[in-house]
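Researcher: Let's run the pair from yesterday's discussion. Sequence first, then tokens, for each.
Model: Starting with the first of the pair.
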Amino acid sequence: MLRRKIKRQGVRAMLIDLVQLRTFVAVAEEQHLTRASERLHISQSAASAHVRAVEECLDTQLFIRTNRSLELTRDGLLLLRQAKTVLNEAAQFQSFARELHGKTKGTIVVGASSEPMGTRIGEVLAGLRARYPLINVDLRARPSSGARQALKTGELDIGILLARPVDAGFSYYLLSTVQFRVAGPASWKRQIDAADWAGLASMPWITPTGSSIAYSSMMDQLFRDRGLEPNSVATFDNAVLGRALLEGGVGLMLIREEHALAGQKAGFLAIAPTAQAQFPLFISHLTSRRNDPLISAFMESAKSVWPEMKLTPTLANG
């Protein structure tokens, strides 16, 4: 834990622990207490208490409440950068300690999207447990953008994500390239088949929120790069929820090819003949933790399930 003295009369020295610091970072990134508590799997009251403890310990206000969000104060913004550094260093310290003692035991926290199809995560974790029975697994649903942030702060040890390899401090291992298709209600098939790009864009769409980086990037590739703007009538931040809207007949949606083909076979979806996109699927971890026994054990298991898995260079413009 980090010792900080409060220079206020009548207030004893207090401690900031890593859990409180991690809560501060999560609240800062989410700008919302409820979303941060859900992300950390703690109660909202606990998250509020953690933030309050950090503020009291540092004798400074970290957040200003606006209409619907929490915004960092100037001090909070400066402290956020340092907090991330401390959390990263703490993860490296734990990694070094495990390496020093050669103990392959502990809990590994893995973040994956709510769409496990194609990741074979069940096989990977089953193999991990078979080889290393002293390793416990904590599997958490996390969108790719959130997984990247959680890797940086130590909330996650491993992330399985749709992403571009842009983080210089990460090691990215390419698993596969995921195919996506544009699909809509089967009753729209004739209109979908006949539509050009402008016609597709003008139809009702179910689109991702800005936090869905992979989906947003593919939508840009399909439409905005052609100077078109999809007619969005509903948005989603979770692909499973988006598909519920699609199956309800709300509009068109960019979905994984396996879901599109299954819906077409079942008779409730129609697939646009030419509109398709693709995005890489990676396993990722902090490069600084490559020698951590927990990380090494996970990657060993992943390699047995994904023999073609390979380390991918980070993009220079990331």
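Model: Moving on to the second of the pair.
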Amino acid sequence: MTLGEAGADRMKAYSPKEYWSGLAEGAPAGDSSGFAPVLHPDAPPWFNRLIDRLQFRAIRRALAMGRVQPGARVLDVGCGTGRWIRRYLEWGFHPTGVDVTPSMLRVARERGTTAPLIAGEAYRLPFADAAFDLVSDVTVIQHIQSSLQRPALEETARVLKPGGCLILMELIRGKGAHIFPRPADDWIRQTRDCGVKLIGWFGQEYLLLDRLFVWSAQTARGGNGSSRTLDRVPEQRALRPSPTARRVYWTVRRMTASLSAWTDPVTAGVCPAKFATHGVFVFRK
């Protein structure tokens, strides 16, 4: 079997429902926020809190860009453990969550999510046309196989009311067995072709120093002649040869990630948006 054939087999083996079910069922009992299954299950809690803060800031900016008003009916696609559903309630919206994984929805209810939660697939949303004022998708479609991403985007546009707002936060670089990113221009083109107009977009999660450290650590682990390529997505899992190495890795990374997050606003001001790991795209129907 060639490397290409092996890669194709791994792609076929990936099942989003099974993958996310495993993460939900393995969620730490003490993870009251529900961050671990939907962010980075192998990372320490402080890292997930840091990433969540960055995403929180980005979604608030996107909501302001889209001029979404309190009282809006919101659909959160791939709601996972309900972190955005709970926030939408706090912000005065009327949210509904949909997720392919019933065990994720169970965790969401256990974490205090009181809004409607429905099991369903992003590319076959169980809702009527033009049902919502806002549809949000925070790092969800990037985890769907590429062939189903366009149908999922079409569904987000279908259930959106005319004049409604669509917010996508998706990977624009990186790689992984369950990650299928697109360049920013491709996300924009694919979504616009579904009948919505781009209001604007911005880069999210530059974390340049942290990404450099992750690359350095992976290069050191690979050794001379390693075929590993630069992993430019800081949230991907670290190689962990021993508990001691893991402690050292995350001790150093706590410094690089924290400093990177602190300087991200400056980085965003001087670097093109395409340098970020994610793009946040705001559309109007």
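Researcher: Give me one sentence on the second I can quote.
Model: The chain is about 45% helix and 15% strand.
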